[in-house]
Amino acid sequence: MQETARTVVMIFAIAALGYVVGAIKIKGISLGSSAIFLVALVFGHFGVTFPAAMQTAGMVLFIASVGISAGPTFAGNLRRHGAAYVLLCLLTALTGAALCVAIIRFAGIETPIAMGLMTGAYTTSPGFASAKEAFAESADAVAKVAAGYGIMYPVGTLGKVLFVQLVPKLLKTDMARERELLRQTEAAQGSRSKQGTIRLEAQGFFTLALAIACGMLLGGVTIPLPGIGSFSLGNSGGPLLVGLLLGHLGRIGPLDLRVDPKMVGPTKELGLILFFTGAGTEGGSRLMEIVEQYGASLIFYGLLLTFIPMALGFFFSQRLFRLSALNGLAAMTGGMTSTPSLAALIQTSGTTDVASTYATTYPIALINMVLVMQILARV
Q1: What pLDDT is stored for residue 162 in this prediction?
Q2: Do the beta carbons of residue 33 and residue 347 sit within 8 Å?
Q3: Terminus of the chain with fewer CB atoms < 10 Å: N or C?
Q4: pLDDT digits (tens, 9 = 90+) for 356-366
């Protein structure tokens, strides 16, 4: 079998096995599409690899689709809950930073490893890149950041996926009521006039392709932050913001940019297959090596960094800001820049409306994490 054919077979074999594992329910809890990541870890441990471009393509396909679908509701959501989202993202980032400092000071974990654990627990690739950049002059420190990230990324991913599924069950959340509360902020996408517009193709793939291309160009722009370093939106933040903009506008002059809602779901799922398969095999390649080298105690510290900020943020979203349960959970997925947990929340809630909250909080959280990593490097 040719190498190209073998690669394609392995991608979809992992996906198929992932869906089988993801369909298994234990007391009503299942991993869903995120199980593809778990299966890919096992394949990665045994030497299966995929081109890095495949993982990136999957991520931008998913995240741009999220932005486009959330665009029509984004402005209304920001007007209604903007202050709450900003404060929740700050709380989430600062809680993680405080825990990270405590781990460094009291557990004796080296700063680069602790920062790697935090970026892995938050599953934040921009934060990870920022942490590596902070230690760019030391190859050893950069390797330690990568080690912490590698050991914690799969645990952090699965932990947050389980969190967004468990909380509604523990709270006995009325999903029908929660979906209705989310729809109250939804703008009427279909109310825009179709007259006098030019539509290049029926489904909206042109808009998706435009969002990805322009978004990746935007994500590559580096913005200097005097005294701290630099900042960029990266390959996740750029397509998300451009997707939001195009989804919100719906048209540019006579050009119709609306996307068929029936196309968005399958596009997101294909993106997740590529992203989870690539990220899982990449993480699995060194997972056992890192565990043996640094010990299982790192997982415990990483779990603290995963669950405490998320639980505390959700608590305040309910008690202080009075957000609905789904809105609070969606804010936490964005606040911890966790695309896999957003996918799990969409599946659990039965609505893509949660993506609007994610898309609102994600850019705020991204900026926070980049800044926090630069500050922690000086601890």
Answers
A1: 86
A2: yes
A3: N
A4: 788 788 878 87
The pLDDT assigned to 188 comes to 42
> With the CA atoms of 193, 194, 196 and 202 taken in that order, what torsion angle do they form, in degrees rounded to the nearest 10?
150
Which residues make beta-bridge pairs with 34?
Answer: none
pLDDT confidence of residue 189:
41
CA distance 329 to 311: 10
**Predicted confidence band of residue 129 (pLDDT cuts 50, 70, 90):** low
Q: How confident is the model at residue 229 (pLDDT cuts 50, 70, 90)?
A: low
Helix 325-335 and helix 339-349: axis angle, to 10°?
Answer: 160
- Closest Cα partner for 228 from 370, 335, 363? 370
What's the 3-state SS for 162-205? HHHHHHHHHCCCCHHHHHHHHHCCCCCHHHCCCCCCECCCCCCH
How many angstroms separate the first and last alpha carbons of the chain? 53
Question: CA angle at residue 38 from 303 to 165, to 5 degrees?
Answer: 60
Distance CA 114, CA 157 (A): 17
Please give the model's pTM, rounded to 2 decimal places. Answer: 0.73
Rounded to 5°, angle at Cα 180 from 176 and 184: 170
Which pLDDT band, with edges at 50, 70 and 90, does 187 fall under?
very low
Length of the chain: 379
Beta bridge partners of 198: 255
Question: Which of 24-28, 84-88, 194-198, 349-353 has the highest average model confidence (pLDDT)?
Answer: 84-88
107 with 305: CB under 8 angstroms? no
d(CA 87, CA 136): 31
**Cβ neighbours, 10 Å, residue 230:** 13
Contacts 24+ apart (CB under 8 A), 176-183: 178/324, 178/325, 178/326, 178/349, 179/326, 179/349, 179/350, 179/351, 179/353, 181/324, 181/326, 181/327, 182/324, 182/326, 182/327, 182/351, 182/353, 182/354, 182/356, 182/357, 183/353
Return the residue matching tokens 């997925």.
333
Q: Do 61 and 69 form a contact (C-beta atoms < 8 A)?
A: no
